Amino acid sequence: MADPGVETRTRSSVITARAAATFEPVGRSVATARAFVRDTLQGWGHTDVVDDAVVLTSELVTNAVIHAGTSADVLCLRAEHSVRVEVADRYPEREVPLQGSGPAVADPDRENGRGLMLCAALATRWGVDYSPTRKHVWFQLDLPERPVGTRSAGPVLPVELLPTTDDRVRVAVVQIDQGGAIGAWNEDAEQLFGYTPDQVTGKPLGDLAAWPHTPGTGTGLAEALKLSRWEGSYGIRNTDGRVIPVYGSHLRVRDTSGEPSTVCLLVRDYERAVLQSPPRNHSASPDNGTSGAEGRPIDPFEVFIGSPAPDDLDGLLQRTVERARDMLDGDAAFLLLATDDETELEVRATTGLPSARQRFARVPVESGTGRYASARMPAVHEDLDAAPGAVPLLGGTGMRSVVTVPLKVEGRLTGSLGVAAEASARYSNEEALRLQFAADRIALAVESARLGELERLRRGSLSFLVEASDLLAGTLDRDQTLALMAQMTVPTLATWCAVYTIADATSDPYLSYVLHEDEERIDGLKDLLGKIPPPEPVPSPGARIWTAPSQAAHQAAVRTSMRELGLGSSASSGISTTLATASAVGGETVVLPLVARNRVIGMLTLGKPSDDHFRQEILELAEDLSRRAALALDNARLYSERTAISQSLQRSLLPPGLPDIPGVEVDVIYRAAGEGNEVGGDFYDLFPIRDNAYGFAIGDVCGTGPEAAAVTGLARHALRLLAREGLGGPAVLERLNAAILDEGSRSRFLTLLYGELRPQPDGSAQLKVVCAGHPLPLRLRQDGTVTPAAEPQPLLGVMDDLELYEETVTLDPGDVLLCVTDGVTERREGSRMLGDDGLAEVLTSCTGLTAGAVSARIMRAVERFAADPPSDDMAILAMRVPEEHPPA
Length: 888
Fold this sequence. Notes:
Elements: H1 4-12, E1 17-23, H2 28-43, H3 50-67, E2 72-78, E3 82-89, H4 114-122, E4 125-130, E5 135-142, E6 172-176, E7 182-185, H5 187-193, H6 197-200, E8 209-210, H7 221-226, E9 229-237, E10 243-254, E11 260-268, H8 300-306, H9 313-327, E12 332-338, E13 344-351, H10 355-358, E14 362-364, E15 379-381, E16 401-409, E17 412-421, H11 429-473, H12 478-489, E18 496-501, E19 510-516, H13 522-530, E20 544-545, H14 548-567, H15 572-584, E21 589-596, E22 599-607, H16 616-651, E23 665-671, E24 682-690, E25 693-701, H17 705-724, H18 729-741, E26 750-759, E27 765-772, E28 778-780, E29 786-788, E30 807-811, E31 816-820, H19 822-825, E32 828-829, E33 832-833, H20 835-844, H21 851-865, E34 874-880
Antiparallel strand pairs: 1-2, 2-3, 3-5, 4-5, 6-7, 6-11, 8-9, 9-10, 10-11, 12-13, 12-17, 13-14, 15-16, 16-17, 18-19, 18-22, 20-21, 21-22, 23-34, 24-25, 25-26, 26-27, 27-30, 28-29, 28-31, 31-34, 32-33
Helix pairs in contact: 2-3, 3-4, 3-11, 9-11, 11-16, 12-16, 14-15, 17-18
């Protein structure tokens, strides 16, 4: 139980917004609840805590709607500095899985309590509240203290390095409404441009702004005012018509009513250092205050190190390599980050190199033997032609000389920074020392940004796996499971995906599903993969490289190019398709085994486009997904096998077909209750006994499902055997009653209508029927009257000694005999029931219809009587003697 004091303080916070929703106790409600919380928090602008909130909500709603089996009430509350989410169910008597009074949760391997474990791990505060009728779990996530858009402070610079300005720096603050009109104009704006607030309020900013029109750029003043953040130079016309160059920083905001507007901060252009982020590099002339204390020029890399860093890791790395290249006047630069075990380096940013092709490629830390073989030490290579393979990343790029230095944090290798040139002997130890000094300054910022990215990836991975698990658990269909596996990986994890399945230990892998982010390339990809042997089904966990697709794609591209040279442009369409397919699978391809219940049941293959690579975090996420997907796929296989066996056995209990009876129309409709059931407790049969004599039966075994179906098989086969022995109806049913009682504890009572049908020479039909506890058969005459065709007698499977008798019924031409089970007459809608009277009323309207039309109308009336699906088995048997046709 949470600390009451904490609860009191949390509730005392001023609530500024709230959103609530209720979710039914069904599986799809979990995904709906996640979407509700995600949309609510994103609408409030709290994207920083969305992932944590979605993960926690998913666990708590799952506990309510799946495990507790009750509806879930979700309430989102926004305070000034935090977000609170409450999930309530109606199952208060469940225990709180805690130990002692602290927040430690019991055994983490237990099914219950995992949601509270996550609350303890991710939430700032959390608790469980009980009342006599409900229980709710709440958690609170504090919002980041740093407002969106702020940056960390720069270093302390010497006074002589500070930017110059006038005695009085004026910052004009201009607020622009959604239509681009000026709504606020401060005193500094009046001093800078000469206009009073009354002169400009309500006028478009475009009337005063001189916006530069650069060919090839699409951002004008109107577009810039709609951006969330923009910085740049333009001009403002003053009262004299002269254009004053200004530097502006535009920030888009919204007021309490939700209306957006733009706040512009403007300074004179030469005072841009007041607003600009990051500051521009200054030239090294001694008269502008940009030289160092010893008269040397300021190193542009030093200025970069002191400037605020970009918010994202990729931006920081890319700007680092660009400044490193400029600092040493190189032709290319690159930055690699070390893996957790420091055995490999992963390419994360390059300039002057084919970055798209090299991104996320991995090279070993220890690249070879010799003085400069390790990325852990600074290295200068005067000529790479004399030391091939020393820097694997630069192979085939034309670079001759290179200097590389390590990035280290607390003695641990975190990355490597390098600058290369096309000429040889460009760099010496002096350049290595300068680059190492810069790398030492930036290493901590890079590592901090990398850890932040990893944390975001971890939280995003949790949300992804929660969604994936929910989708995979929502189906037991094999084909749908295969499709979900591919659709979850493309394009989130890979450009294309192929799933191979293995039927059993003796079968070869089979290509079951292929998906590409470009649908037009799926057929070509499937054709290419079909021509190469499948990957080996290795059970060892983890992703392994599979080179066969890229090699096959390369060979196909070469053959196609050769054929194009010989054919000219006559087959250009097919050739271009082949080349596009080859390019689509020409990158890195990895295979992950699908292992379920200690057996490899398939392989998940992920691929990238030409010369692209997977990052390690994506491969780890794909491995987690493959484990879940393998279990879901195996569950679908087992379910399909069980369903096929069950349906095959059930079909054996149904009559093989209805015989043709001269002079009598017969139709049957059968519906078994329960998903996947073809036979239940209700049954019917119609079979020949001897010449011109046919037996018919319709019955209902107590209960539904396989147990009732077993008694169904016994009754149907016993009826046929006994009737063909020449026994009459009462004798047949008495012997069947004894056979049911012999089943002992497995016996079930049975209601049965059994009869013998004999067509007569005069066009009528004679029936001898015995109704043992079954709903009475109804006879419909040509004049529309409906009457019972038998008397009720004791049911079977209850008493040892039965004394049954048969009754004779004659059906005249045009008459109908309707036999049903109690699933028809007991169809309910609330407190209403169709009943015998309702069935008779429907049958009255069937005069003149064929037997098939009669049974169809009865079934239609039963289905329309209630909105819910039928909960009981139903059988309808209709027999009709057709009317005599008049002579032609």
